[in-house]
Structure formats: structure tokens, C-alpha cells
Specification:
Strand content: under 5%
Low-confidence stretches: 294-319
Mean pLDDT: 86
Number of helices: 16
Structural class: mainly alpha
Helix content: 55-70%
Order of helices and strands: HHHHHHHHHHHHHHHH
């Protein structure tokens, strides 16, 4: 992740009319710069597993929230302040405040100009709240091509697919992911890994097992021996909605990397949480239990540590 650039020197600094219109511009610009710098560092820390409990990240975002709340009072219509304020609020569970700031951005410039960062986060929040129509509305606005190095382009697609599936539009949910992937993936950047694995999950949940395995095979052949750990790392950047989906993804990855004992435990945890696809989790458990006893012991794959808390074609399931 590229570090934020230092704020440029304002050529109008000291200008009487600018000072009259934006009396706090320099202070707000500095706060935005510092907030972006801290958030970039916080995300790197999270992905590097330096903060396994998340306590450090929560402390950081609580401090940023206070700083950005102050900046918002100084510049209530500053788009960058509103976006960062929403990000910090959402990170510490202040959902109402995050939505208020995001809607303020949309009100100021419109949903199309607000950008996928704003509409995608709004859609994700509505998805977490179970408000599926609103989730689909904003995630459709955020929908776009997969861009390597821009995790939001993958997460918006995954969340849109999830929202459509939860609304009963399974074929549309699959198409969102399948159509976003190119016919031939030159190399599997993290964003392509996330969308390809999400497509495997979508097929698995629709009981299209052979197509789910096909997507996993694409990842395996494209990433070679370290494919399990690579996908595991790529998924770490995804904020799951609903939260229990993380357990489903982890369990499927563990099973696909032959960690059957750990996968079985993961499926059991998902089923116990009464996720939307609890029956599929039970089906996986039943399949694991039919394997030879030696294969179902608590194995730890050399490519992925257990965690508890190629062409891509368009496929429709035909009746």
C-alpha cells in the first residue's frame, strides 16, 4: 500500500477571501493527511498479524474517530473528512455515525460521483444489517471491474453477490462473480483470488460441487504449492458480511487443503451459528465423516494455518 503523500503547500494560504470561506482549511488538510497515514499503517499491521487480537487497531481507530469528529465540526461538507470519519466510525462499531457521514457524501455529490468506496461501504453496512434491498442498491452503484491492488473492487463484488444470494437470486449472485473474472487470468493478484474463491463458495452453496471444485483447481494450478496460504492471506483483507461467512470461507479452504479435522470443526461452528447455509455445512461434515478415519484426524495443512473465531466460464444452474 502506497503511503499517503504529504499535503501540498496551499498557494492561496494567507488569501483573505480563502481564509474567510475556509478558515480551518490548513488544519483540516493536516488532519486528513495524518488520518490517511495512520489508517494505511493500521491496515498493514492487521494484515501482517502484528495485532492478532485487534486491540491495537481498535485503539487506533478510536483515536482517529475523535480527531475526525473534530475535523467534521470544522468542515462539515469536506468530502475527504466525511469518508474518513465514516471509515473510522464503522471500524469501531459506530454504525449510525458511519451511515450518517456516508449518506452526507451521497447527498452532496450524488451516488454516482460518491465513488465505490462510499457506495460500497454503505452497501456493506446495509448487508450486515440485513436490509438487502438497500444493500443491493448501493452495491450495484459500487460494482465495477476487478483491479489488482485495489481490494475494494473485489470486496464490493463479493458483498453484492452475497446480498443477491440472500435475496434468493442465486443465479444472479453467481453471474456477478463469474462475469467479473476474465477469460484468462494472467496472474492471480489478491483481488482475483478473493473473487475466484468467492465464486467457489457460491457454487458450493448452490450445491454445484463440480463447478466449485473447478474454481478451486484454477487457484491451485495458478498459485501452485502455496495456494492455500496465498488465498488465506488474500481473504484476510475482506471484511465479511454477514460476519459468520468468514467461518464458511475458512472451513471450505481448510477442507480444500486437506485439513479435514480442522475443516470439520469449522463447519460445526458455522452450523452452530445458524448461518444461512447451515445445511450445507452439515453436508460437508457428513462428507468428511465418510472419509477413512485416518484422513479425518486434526490435520494441519502445511500451506494454511487453521483459524477459528485457467479459464472462467459463465455458468447457470439449469432446472
Amino acid at each position: 500500500m502506497r503511503a499517503p503523500q504529504a499535503p501540498p503547500v496551499d498557494p492561496d494560504r494567507g488569501n483573505f477571501w480563502r481564509e474567510l470561506a475556509e478558515p480551518h482549511k490548513d488544519e483540516v488538510t493536516l488532519i486528513v493527511f495524518k488520518a490517511r497515514q495512520a489508517m494505511a499503517q493500521g491496515d498493514v499491521t492487521m494484515l501482517a498479524d502484528y495485532d492478532p487480537t485487534g486491540e491495537g487497531r481498535q485503539k487506533l481507530y478510536r483515536e482517529l474517530f475523535g480527531m475526525l469528529r473534530y475535523a467534521r465540526r470544522l468542515a462539515p461538507d469536506n468530502l475527504e473528512v466525511l469518508k474518513l470519519y465514516a471509515q473510522s466510525a464503522d471500524a469501531i462499531g459506530k454504525t449510525r455515525q458511519a451511515m450518517d457521514a456516508l449518506h452526507a457524501v451521497v447527498d452532496l455529490v450524488g451516488a454516482e460521483k460518491a465513488g465505490p468506496e462510499v457506495t460500497g461501504r454503505l452497501g456493506e453496512i446495509y448487508l450486515r444489517l440485513g436490509l438487502l434491498d438497500e444493500a443491493v442498491r448501493y452495491l450495484r452503484e459500487a460494482q465495477g471491474p476487478i483491479l489488482a491492488g485495489q481490494p475494494i473492487t473485489a470486496s464490493n463484488l463479493v458483498h453484492l453477490s452475497t446480498a443477491l444470494a440472500m435475496r434468493g437470486q442465486t443465479s444472479d449472485a453467481i453471474d456477478v462473480l463469474a462475469e467479473a473474472l476474465p477469460t484468462s487470468v494472467p496472474y492471480y493478484a489478491n483481488e482475483y483470488q478473493v473473487v475466484t474463491f468467492a465464486l467457489a463458495v457460491a457454487y458450493d452453496r448452490d450445491d454445484q460441487r463440480s463447478l466449485a471444485v473447478e474454481q478451486l483447481d484454477h487457484l491451485r494450478s495458478g498459485l501452485q504449492e502455496t495456494w492455500g496460504q496465498s488465498v488465506h492471506t488474500a481473504l484476510a483483507a475482506l471484511r465479511f458480511a454477514p460476519a459468520e461467512d468468514q467461518q464458511y470461507y475458512q472451513a471450505l479452504l481448510l477442507e480444500a487443503t486437506d485439513s479435514y479435522g480442522d475443516a470439520r470443526a469449522g463447519w460445526a461452528l458455522y452450523a452452530a451459528a445458524r448461518g444461512a447455509y447451515a445445511q450445507r455445512a452439515l453436508d460437508h461434515i457428513a462428507a468428511i465423516d465418510t472419509r477413512p478415519k485416518a484422513s479425518t484426524s486434526a490435520l494441519v495443512s502445511p500451506t494454511i494455518a487453521p483459524m477459528y473465531p485457467p479459464s472462467i466460464r459463465r455458468h447457470r444452474r439449469h432446472p
